[in-house]
Amino acid sequence: MTSMNEMSFNHPSQTRRDRLKTIDPDSLNTLLSQQAVTLVDVREPSEHAGEKIPGSVLMPLSKFDPNSIPFDSNKPTVLYCRTGNRSAQAAQKLFAAGLDEVTHLEGGLSAWVQAGYPTEVNKNAPISLMRQVQIVAGSLVVIGTVLGAFVSPWFLLLSGFVGSGLVFAGITNTCALAMLLAKLPYNQRV
């Protein structure tokens, strides 16, 4: 059996941010095959329903409660999301709740898939939040532009507002529209 010390974790330093450890897909796959890790998906329910790493449990970041994480004293808990950004945010909540070390999958589900490891895919799940954001934001830009051209130039402010929101989301890596869409009932199905 492979121990945690044999895996390729980054070692923490003394600062809170540095206590966040990462694990690569190869090491995580080894631990999962040995049932030596608890894997927690912090993406939203629609994302988890659409594609997930087999054996993972859902604890969405939007409802993340450190007290509800299924900790097992005999095996470490690893967080993952799509790219590693949200799992790092969830880790900060665990640090705030008093944990000293938290591990997350480096590169998230994208890195897992790129490494060639299997996922469970549900073709009947809602489309991804990213695609929903693209559809809604793109539609608002088109509507604002058309109304601005044919009704009143003031409608161009709608297109400008949506474009500014997308720039802000790209710079901060935080998308308010995605968080809003994630709360819709059809995105809550698991």
TrEMBL record:
<keyword id="KW-0812">Transmembrane</keyword>
<dbReference type="InterPro" id="IPR021309">
    <property type="entry name" value="YgaP-like_TM"/>
</dbReference>
<protein>
    <submittedName>
        <fullName>Rhodanese-like domain-containing protein</fullName>
    </submittedName>
</protein>
<keyword id="KW-1133">Transmembrane helix</keyword>
<feature type="transmembrane region" description="Helical">
    <location>
        <begin position="133"/>
        <end position="155"/>
    </location>
</feature>
<dbReference type="Pfam" id="PF11127">
    <property type="entry name" value="YgaP-like_TM"/>
</dbReference>
<dbReference type="InterPro" id="IPR001763">
    <property type="entry name" value="Rhodanese-like_dom"/>
</dbReference>
<keyword id="KW-0472">Membrane</keyword>
<dbReference type="InterPro" id="IPR036873">
    <property type="entry name" value="Rhodanese-like_dom_sf"/>
</dbReference>
<dbReference type="InterPro" id="IPR050229">
    <property type="entry name" value="GlpE_sulfurtransferase"/>
</dbReference>
<feature type="domain" description="Rhodanese">
    <location>
        <begin position="33"/>
        <end position="121"/>
    </location>
</feature>
<dbReference type="Pfam" id="PF00581">
    <property type="entry name" value="Rhodanese"/>
</dbReference>
<feature type="transmembrane region" description="Helical">
    <location>
        <begin position="161"/>
        <end position="182"/>
    </location>
</feature>
